[in-house]
Design a protein that fits this description.
CATH architecture of the largest domain: Sandwich
Low-confidence stretches: 1-12, 14-25
Largest sheet: 8 strands, antiparallel
Number of helices: 4
Oligomer: single chain
Number of strands: 17
Radius of gyration: 32 Å
Structural class: mainly beta
CATH class of the largest domain: Mainly Beta
Shape: elongated
Helix content: 10-25%
CATH topology of the largest domain: Immunoglobulin-like
Length: 311
């Protein structure tokens, strides 16, 4: 019993000591002196591509929200800067100009209240024409696949500056913040050639001519590419006969330039030569590495003419 009392006394002493130590160190964190920053939350990406075929009506457009300790009222200006980027095969990226240039400036008065949040919001709209002129190019110098890099710079009333070069990864990319300060805007060439088409085989390697139908199916992972239901456009069936089977041949539309790639079930690869295109008829020749060939005139469907940009 004496041993138990002694042990209990030691335990009680330890508990008293620990409980007294718990409040011994009082953290002295000067929260009131903490500096706070500001960022631009992306509310809506209204337009983040430029249509190569319609630059006159293309634009870069965003809705942004200024987030700071005064609900957006510390914002003085937001600079919208831009530069042009092109990937040159075998060389690398070429920037025009080397450093981004100012294309537009938002003032504090451009930020307005809204019914969704307490923070002030503003719209950014830069037309393709404004961006092209700012980087010193013309429409003739723009190609499909080019990229315009837009960068925002927030200047506040305390003389501070916030942009992509001093934003944290979390603020830039996390869904809650979504404040990258930088937006790549690609020059794209929309393509809509999927469908089932009637065609006339004008020439084949066996000398036969005939009519048929062909289906072009869009490849989801490769915009502008279409698998064709028969890379020989029925020529095997008419000349041998043989079935297309498991062949995988694509026709790709790169800003209007048509190419053919892929192989048939025997491993022979395919290519094509563009002949002509009107609103109603697209004519081209195909050939494979086995030596088989043909020329087809593919007819457009009602209400969906062939694009005038095909070549």
């Amino acid at each position: 019993m004496k041993t138990l009392k002694y042990s209990f006394a030691l335990m009680a002493t330890a508990l008293i000591f620990l409980s007294s130590c718990r409040d011994f160190v009082e953290p002295n964190v000067p929260y009131k002196d903490f500096d706070t920053g500001a960022y631009l939350r992306t509310i809506a990406r209204t337009s983040t591509t430029l249509n190569f075929f319609d630059l006159a009506n293309s634009k870069f457009a965003l809705t942004i929200e200024a987030v700071d300790k005064e609900d957006g009222k510390t914002v003085q200006t937001v600079e919208v800067r831009v530069r042009h980027r092109r990937l040159i095969p075998g060389v690398g990226l070429k920037y025009t100009p080397a450093n981004d240039v100012l294309v537009k400036t938002l003032q504090a008065s451009d930020f307005k209240t809204n019914t969704t949040s307490r923070f002030l919001r503003a719209d950014i709209v830069v037309t393709a024409a404004e961006a092209i002129a700012a980087v010193g190019l013309t429409n003739a110098g723009i190609s499909g696949g080019d990229v315009f890099e837009f960068r925002l710079v927030l200047n506040d009333k305390f003389g501070r500056r916030f942009s992509s070069d001093n934003v944290t990864t979390n603020v830039a990319g996390a869904p809650f913040y979504d404040s990258p300060f930088q937006y790549p805007v690609s020059v794209v060439c929309p393509s809509d050639l999927a469908g089932t088409y009637a065609f006339d085989a004008l020439e084949t390697f066996c000398g036969k001519t005939y009519s048929g139908s062909i289906t072009w199916t869009a490849v989801a992972a490769s915009p502008g590419s279409y698998t064709v239901s028969d890379g020989t456009f029925g020529a095997w069936d008419k000349c041998y006969p043989d079935s297309w089977g498991s062949g995988n041949v694509r026709i790709s539309d790169a800003c209007g330039k048509l190419t053919m790639s892929g192989a048939d079930k025997y491993g022979d690869s395919y290519s094509m030569t563009f002949k002509s295109a009107t609103a109603t008829v697209l004519t081209f020749s195909w050939i494979n590495t086995y030596g088989e060939f043909g020329t087809v005139a593919v007819k457009s469907n009602t209400g969906k003419p062939w694009p005038a940009t095909l070549k």
